[in-house]
Amino acid sequence: MKKLPLLLLMFILFLGACSADQKDGVLLVNFKCGSEQIFRIDYLAYTDGEYLCMGGMADYDKEALKDRDDMAVPFQGGDLTLEDGTVKQLSLELHLYGADEQELAAIPATVVPGAPGGECTVTISEDGQGGFRVEAA
Known about the structure:
The protein is mainly beta and 137 residues long. 14% of the residues lie in helices and 45% in strands. The chain is built from two helices and eight strands. It has helices at residues 3-17, 77-80; strands at residues 26-33, 40-47, 50-58, 72-76, 90-97, 103-112, 119-126, 132-136. The strands form two sheets. It has a four-stranded mixed β-sheet with strand order 4-1-7-8. It has a four-stranded antiparallel β-sheet with strand order 3-2-5-6.
C-alpha cells in the first residue's frame, strides 16, 4: 500500500510538467536508487539541451527510496522527436534530498539513452567518497 502514494505523486508531477503528445510512443525511464540516504529525487529534463519539463518522486511515508522498484517516468515520443523523425537527446539533471529535506547533491545533466517505444534505467548510487554517481543505460 505504501507504493500507491509514491506512484500517485509521480503521476501528478508528470501530468503537470510534460506535454501529452503521444504520437510516437513513450520512452520509459526507470529510476533505481542504491542509497539509504536519498528520500526524494527531483529532476529537470532537457532535450537537445533545451528545457522540457520537471518532476520528482518521494514517498509520502518519508521512507528512503533505496531498492524501490516502482519509480518510472514516461517521456512522450512527441517531446523526444523532431518532425522528420530524428530522435532528440534526452538528459536529466537530478537533485537528491535526504530525510530532513536538505539537498544532498545536485547532479549535472546526464544523457539518457533510448528512444520512444523503449526503456532505460537511471541508477543512483553512493560513490564511496561521500557523494553520489548516476549511470544511465
